[in-house]
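Field reference: "sequence" (input) and "structure" (output). Example, tRNA-2-methylthio-N(6)-dimethylallyladenosine synthase:
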Amino acid sequence: MKPTNSPKTYRVKSFGCQMNVYDGERMAEMLGERGIVPAPEGEDADLVVLNTCHIREKAAEKVYSDIGRLTKGKTQDKAPMIAVAGCVAQAEGEEIMARAPAVSMVVGPQAYHRLPEMLDKAVQGERATDTDMPAIAKFAALPERKRTNPASFLTVQEGCDKFCTYCVVPYTRGAEISRPYGDLVTEARKLVDAGAKEITLLGQNVSAWSGENDKGQAVGLAGLIRDLAKVDGLARIRYTTSHPADMDADLIAAHGEIDKLMPFLHLPVQAGSDRVLKAMNRSHTAESYLRLLERFRAARPDLALSGDFIVGFPGETDAEFEETLKLVDAVGYAQAFSFKYSPRPGTPAASMEGQVAKEVMDERLQRLQAALNRDQWAFNRATEGRTCEVLVERKGKHPGQWLGKTPWLQSAWFEGDVGIGDLVQVELVEAGPNSLAGQLRERVAA
Ligand code: SAH
Ligand code: SF4
Ligand code: F3S
């Protein structure tokens, strides 16, 4: 590649999970430290970071179509400098370098703190790949956080040791690690100083977080949440994503005891058939999952539940799929994500017998989503008439309209004299399938 001018503007495009969004924000902050500014809306950026996701085939393919779109018909001096980050970078770094000469930098999710050095090389015309996995080094090397959204993310745990047979995450994000307690309390305080009212603690397996508190005691996620709840100015705490195997009694109890811990639990189950769950290497059964939810609901009766589902896992029969629908009926989810099984390179399930035909998966997904949508709307209707606290996150579509989240993570929109970051009391007056219309009752001091 030819040497080029240092980029002046950047755009970070994040795909995939919330952790990728968090990583994207941190990369943007690093570029900001370098004096590179976000490209104005609608204008081309000098540097584009594609922060990619490898979880399903469609997500991974997007990288190449995005690169094509960014460089189409452009010579090197007209095209933006491109960095590929995220989980596709980790899984297919060398392939990207070989297949896409327009890419100057490939940087994995555990190495992105080195992006500025790579940028120096790229300006000299040197292409660079960094997919090392140095445990935890990244966080210490990132700049301080100065600005943030009212609802912010904080990565507390990364990686996964569960090895579900369909999933790439243990390969792209590496082994489970927990960030140290002290670092997290400090970062949470900084986020609050920077404007956060709500913090969602993130981890691929967040309930596996463990650490040592300031008194030298071993603590789990519940212990961390209890201490973060003492941070002045922080009004709401959430966490995601959990695995049913790592939910301990203390975390369940915390839902009944800590007001700041929001009544919402995202707990993926994936399927309702025990045979399928076993083949997926999920260490729970449908029954043990339901029993676990009962314990959570006993601690916090108004808990809203969310989950993830995969239809068409290799070998899944019609009758086994019906068991997923049965489980959905039994739970009554407030919201959920559902996906067609996507064979991922290097995972055990990709070479299992009995791969399910696309049409069968389509039909199953449609039926599952119909059931989930029905339950989501029912959940929203059940909250009609309630007045609850809403955190204002952004302006709505129409002038004077605002959009925020209820404690149960529903989107609520309303009109009134408020601002982004305000916590307000809103009466939920009309439930739609995906959001609720509300009426402002009063502001609450944050
Ligand atoms: N660590 C989290 C999130 C993993 S990825 C967890 O265990 O819940 C988010 C979701 O993507 C998973 O819960 C699963 O439902 C889905 N998923 C993962 N791999 C998949 C695959 N190969 N095909 C389809 N969906 C997949
Ligand atoms: Fe993937 Fe399973 Fe780990 Fe979740 S728990 S990240 S689905 S391997
Ligand atoms: Fe995707 Fe990586 Fe997240 S594969 S879902 S971006 S951990």
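The chain is about 35% helix and 25% strand.
The pocket of S-adenosyl-L-homocysteine (ligand 1) is lined by residues 55-56, 160, 166-167, 169, 204-205, 241, 243, 268, 270, 308, 310, 339, 341-342, 344 (CB under 6 Å).
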